[in-house]
Amino acid sequence: MSEIDDLKKKVAMACRMLFVAELVDYSGHISVRIPGTDRFLIRGHPVSRCEVTPDDVVTVDRDGKRLDGKWNPPSELPMHIRTYRARDDIQSVAHLHNRMVVVLSMADRPLIPASNPGALFGPGAIPVYQDPALIHTDEQGDAVARTVGKGDAAILRGHGSIVVGQSIEWTFAACVDLEESAARLCLASTLGPVKFYTDDEVARVGKGRRKPSVIQKVWDHYVAKARLAGLMDGLG
Ligand SMILES: [Zn+2]
What angle do CA 170, 174, 176 make, to 5 degrees? Predict the structure, then answer.
């Protein structure tokens, strides 16, 4: 299997796994850079997240123009493209419609590490992009990219989130951690004041969560989970 075919398969797998993890519904997507290029792979617009195949993945350039594939790319593609353009160091971008992250943003509560999944994102609050409109233009995409900055994620108020990473496996694992961090914080907040992690605790725990072996463990777990759900047919 060629490198590009392998990446298309991983995009299809990640779409189905994000669906199983309830991090995307009928919207939301994950993309990956073709290594060493300004070309990117992303699921085609009309295909349900729970039945994406490698054949449904399209290739786009740094201007969002489709280079191959049978579908148009998703309408919120500018969020991906403009973030890649701002960050040569990242290989994969995900846009989630994740419930608990959105709930925190609705209450204007910062997402600060207070449990181990949150430590992956480093100390301090994850930045929030305040405009709830969908990201359909380059200008909006640039504004989202500026909100992400040099970090790993940003919250889109009332809408979802964007997560970036060094590989599609990394970004997928970070998506899982972001939502779990928010869910735990929401639950703990109902019990009273929350004891947030110190910067030292975030650094020590975060280092462990960023290990390649841990990233791969999360990926493999969701491959198995999607397979058990009957949603990995034809993808291994
Ligand atoms: Zn969206």
Answer: 120
* Domains of the chain: total: 1
Q: Is 236 within the bounds of a domain?
A: no
Place of tokens 């949150």: 118
Query: From ligand 1's centre to the CA of 153, what distance in Å?
Result: 14
Confirm whether pTM is higher than 0.90. yes
Give the distance (Å) from ligand 1 centre to CA of residue 86.
19
Report DSSP state, residue 137.
S
> What is the Å distance from ligand 1's center to 114 Cα?
26
**Residue 217 forms part of a structural domain:** yes
235 lies in some domain:
no
Task: Please tell me the distance between residue 212's alpha carbon and the centre of ligand 1 in angstroms.
Answer: 28
**Domain around 115:** 3-228
Tell me, in angstroms, the distance from the centre of ligand 1 to residue 149's CA: 19
Q: How far is the CA of 140 from the centre of ligand 1 (A)?
A: 12
Provide the token pair at 216: 């791969």
Q: Are 154 and 142 in contact (CB under 8 A)?
A: no
Q: Show pLDDT as tens, one digit a residue, over the chain (236 residues).
A: 799 999 999 999 999 999 999 999 888 999 999 999 999 999 998 888 888 999 999 999 999 999 999 999 999 999 999 999 999 999 999 999 999 999 999 999 999 999 999 999 999 999 999 999 999 999 999 999 999 999 999 999 999 999 999 999 999 999 999 999 999 999 999 999 999 999 999 999 999 999 999 999 999 999 999 999 999 988 86
CATH of the domain at 74: 3.40.225.10
Q: Any residues with CB less than 8 A from the CB of 193 and at least 6 apart, and which?
A: none
Q: Report the separation in Å between the CA atom of 192 and the middle of ligand 1, taken as the mean of its atom positions.
A: 32
Q: Could you tell me if residue 234 is inside a domain? A: no
